[in-house]
């Protein structure tokens, strides 16, 4: 699984999401940025920032 923790980008936010592929993680993260952090315009560098912070999560049975 791929994991993105919003706190790595927005200090203090404990929201996180995980999905099987990066594009799904980015999609959900962008949605979260819009809904929670009021980012109505998602800049290209924000997508890059999200991608740079997605990491592998060892699957736990
Ligand atoms: Zn957040």
From TrEMBL:
State the InterPro entries in the record: DUF1059
The record, for Pfam families, names: DUF1059
Name the record gives this protein: Putative small metal-binding protein
User: Per the UniProt entry, what species is this protein from, by scientific name?
Assistant: Rhizobium leucaenae
């Amino acid at each position: 699984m791929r994991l993105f923790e919003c706190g790595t980008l927005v200090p203090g936010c404990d929201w996180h999401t995980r999905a099987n592929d990066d594009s799904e993680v980015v999609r959900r993260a962008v949605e979260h940025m819009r809904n929670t952090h009021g980012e109505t315009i998602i800049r290209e560098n924000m997508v890059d920032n999200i991608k740079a912070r997605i990491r592998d999560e060892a699957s736990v049975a």
